[in-house]
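Attaching the record inline, Q. Sequence:
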Amino acid sequence: MGKLIDTNQAKATESRLPNGGIVISIPIQMRMRGKRKEIVLPPDAIPDACERLSESESLVMALVRAHCWNGLLENGRFRSIPELAAAVKLERSYVSRILGLVNLAPDIALAVLNGREPEGFTLRRLRRGIPVLWEEQRKQFGFPSPN
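Structure, as predicted:
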């Protein structure tokens, strides 16, 4: 397994314990994000690949949630988006935005699940709106037309 953080760039220190253990210290900052605490590393401590992986994971998670929640609405488990949002303890507006991902073209959704989305295709970008027509989605988001 490769290193996630280059200890030289992160200004990390490593020390050995008498029992043979290792202590690695990495300077971090904590920031509140909503009701959660988030660790903020210095910008030079996060390699591009880790950022890309994080963005990709967020997109996959959102897509999976969208289809799961849509299934719960379609099968009648929940009668409305506000009821679903209350059950999953998330804001109604967030649940509504994520549910919009079920309208992505099937080939785009498959590309996301397989990690083959174009550079710059992020959940943040999708928040600006998803075109209704699949061909327009492909053009706007940089996906090739299926053969």
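The CA atoms of residues 104 and 134 lie 7 Å apart. The radius of gyration is 20 Å.

More tomorrow.
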